[in-house]
Amino acid sequence: MWKLTGSIRYQLYISYALLIVLVTVIYVGAFYLYESRQITTRSLTSINELSLSLSNKLDLEIQKLDNVTLSVAYSNLIKDRLLRLSGKRDPSDQTPYSADQIADIKELSEIMVAAIGPTQSVRELTIYDFEGNRISTGAMFKYTKENVTEKPWYEAVIKGGGGIVIGMPQPDDELAKSFVYFKDKYFISLFRTYFGGFGEAKGIIKAQQDAATIFSSLIDLERLSGTGKRFYVMDESGYQLYPYDGEDKTGRYYFEQRASQERHPVYVDNPINGEKELVSYHLSEETGWLLAVVTSKNELFASLKQFTGTAAAITLVILIVTMLFSYYAAQKITKPIARLHSSIKKIDLNGSLQPRQHPDSGINEIEALHVAFQSMQANLQNSVDKLLYSQSQEISSKMAALTSQMNPHFLFNTITTVSIMAEEGMSEEIARLCQKLSSMLRYISSEESNVVSLGAEIDYTSAYLECMKIRYQDDLTYTLAISDELMEIPISKLIIQPLVENCMKHAIHVDGPWRIKVEGYVEGDEWRITVSDNGPGMSEDKRRLLNDKIDELEATGRFPGLSVDGMGLLNIYFRLKFTYGEQMMFMIDTAVQEGFSITIGGPLAD
User: Fold this and answer.
1) How far apart, in whole angstroms, are the C-alpha atoms of residue 471 and residue 490?
2) I want to staple 519 with a disulfide (CB 3.0 to 4.6 A). Which of 47, 175, 410, 530 is the partner?
3) 74-214 in CATH: which number?
4) Helix axes 364-423, 497-507, angle to 10 degrees
């Protein structure tokens, strides 16, 4: 078998494979784009023509109602009979109708039936005059005395000034009570004002038709299997007219989508399942209705997807054959590169960097790459060791510096306290205070370690509180409630007493007695220390300033420069961050009703 070694020529086989893939993808992609545009164009044309055709059919149904109302509005016979009927009977008269009245009612009904015509383009025709007469014919003949001004649609019809007003689809309770056939059926009503010979309004004409008849063209198309189309009809205000029954009330969503798009038809997301849909709109100038024809994009491109699947299968077979052919030629270069890649992935900055196995590829370029990688491993190991040592020294230095910042802070406040007590002649108290101060100075000046047991820190805090008790007598009470299991855990020195000192500094600004409480407890696998007082609490300005300084610390990693006064809380936050990282706790309780409360903590394991 012919063997090529010491050359990069094996990559030519990969280039051939990529070339075949590229040509195949370009061909299939170009054909897919071309066909998708063709299908989209044909579909858009088809759906636009369909929406126009359906909108015209809806207009035709409404025109039938309109034509009947026009024929009645311009019929002098009907106006004459209504006038005669109104003049023969007082609206409050409850006596039976006379023969002349019955004859007029019958003649008026026959004229209205003639206006409806044999095609029954109107299910029911009703005339209301302003004299209180109401006469209906069609599905039901009825003559009654009714006040038309009490009808809910009266104001809208009068404002129409003789133009048509189309009502929403709704059941007709009167017809439903009279005929079982009309139970649960919806009707659409068209209203028009009719006028007398001098242009004065005389009454209102109402033409009513089944909603199923008005929207029959939409219903028939939806019943056809495999159409995959849905139809919505909205009025000018965006109220859904169709579908008028059932649970599908998403018409307004498509109405709003049209208002937000500049081009039509548009692709929108189905509000229920999120699928892409193509929507074509047509606005009727006759009725003001907006028809939306909705087609699923998946069904629209079903044939294209089928072709894509076939083309993808053929392409896959070609690629498999090509890759099998290229495999044997590229084997000598891909294996050593894979081994080098595996070695690089195993580099761990947290541990030692061990030399990796020699690839033994027999290719000059791979051998040179391996030697360079081994050299890089050695250099990286040295750099990591130096970096870890440098970071360790930096953290130790910063911790020592932060701890030393607390000492002058405490000494400043304590000397001030002794000075005040001396002025007040409190010699015995000064002696006790000096004893406590001596033990505290030994604690804070010890250079053995910056880490002490929590018990030692509590003893130091207790000595400080006793000093304050000597100074303020009965004005100060304090409580130390520390769980025994916390006494031996290691913590940073001078991390609890500054919290107590912070409470003392702010609590004395209100009238005594002042109460200081220190609690220590275990929560899960972490320790917690809570220090609280009954002072005035922390103002919003100081809280905001502290948060700004903490944000600055997090962003820069440097401790912000502050004077001795006011640096305690930020100092503690920084040292907790250095010691415990993301496992630290530093929380100021904003929910307390009075005073100030702060909780710090960290993991027990550390």
Assistant:
1) 31
2) 530
3) 3.30.450.20
4) 50
